[in-house]
# Entry
Amino acid sequence: MKLALKEMKFYKFRFILITLIILLLGLMVLFISGLAKALGRENISLLDNMSAEQYVMQDKQQPQLEASQLNNKQQQKIEDITKAKPMKIASDKLKQGNDESDVILMNTVKKEKPELKEGHYPTGKNEIAVNEKLTADDINKGDTVKLKDGSKVKVVGVLDDTMYSHSSIAMMSNDGFSQHASEKGTATFYPVKDLSSKQKHDLKQIDDVNIYNKDDITGEIPSYQAEQAPLTMMIVSLFVITAIVLSAFFYVMTIQKISQIGILKAIGIKTKHLLMSLVSQILITTIIGVVIALLLVLGLSFFMPVSMPFHLATSNITLVVVIFIIVGLIGAILSFIKLFKVDPIEAIGGGD
# Structure
C-alpha cells in the first residue's frame, strides 16, 4: 500500500485523470441504472407495493391485470375458497381545468393499500387518493378534480409511487369505485398469499380461472421488456468501456515504468508486492471515482422533478460499486501479465 500511495503521489496527474474518467463513467452508469429502475417501477410499482405472492385471474395465455374479466359466479367461488376481496381496476381520466391526466382507477382492498405520502385513504364516494406523480400536473391534496364521467371528486390523499404500465393509480373507496368506474371496462383479480395446496387445486378447478405469480404478469407488460432490454445493454456497454479504459491506462503506465519495475525487482522487491501495489491503485481510484459519482447523483436526485423517472435502491448502488471494482481488476489483467514478464536485467539495460 505504501508503494502504491507513493507512486500515486508522484504521478498524481495521471491518477487524477483516471479517477475523472471513472467518475464520468460512474455517473453515466448510476444515472442510467436509476432511469432503468424507475421506468421499470412505473410499470410494476403497484405490484411491488403489494404483499401478495400470487394473483387469481382470468385464465389467459398472456396474463394481464387489465384484461382479467371474472363474472359474478367465478368471483363468488374464488372468495369462498380464498376468503380474499377482489381488486378492481379501470382506465379513467382526471380533469382539472384544461389539463387532463390518464389514470388507472382502483378500489380499496384492506390488506393491499399502497402507502400514503400525505392525507388519508378515501372513505366517501366522492373522495380519491392519487399517485404522487400527478402532483407534477398540479393535482394536490385538497383539490377537486373531474373524472371521465364528469363527476367531481376531492383529492384526500397522495399515494407513494404507485403506478402500473406507466399510468398513475388513483384509489377510491369500494362504493366510490362502483359508482364512478365503467363496469364494462373494469378488470377484476384477487391478490393472495399463503395459499394451501388444496386451495390452489380448488381454484384451478374453476372454469377460466388460473393462478399467476408476479413474474408471469410483469413479463406480459409490453413496455416493461421493451424498455429494460436496451437500458441494460447500455449499462453493460459502459462496464465494458470502463474495463477497456482501465486496461489501456494501467497497461501504458506499466510499460512506461518498465525500468523502474526492473530496478525494484533487482533489489529484491517481489512480484507479488508489485501486483498488490497495482491492485491497490486500481481499488483506490475506482472507489474514489464511484463514490464521488454516487454522491453527485444522489445530490442531483433531490432536485429532480417528481415527473422525472429516477430511482436508485441500495441494492442497485451496491451492485454498481461491486461491478466497477471487479471490472477495474479485470481491466488490469494485461498489466498483471506484463509485470510477471518483466526481466530485471533486460529492464535496466543489462541484457545487451
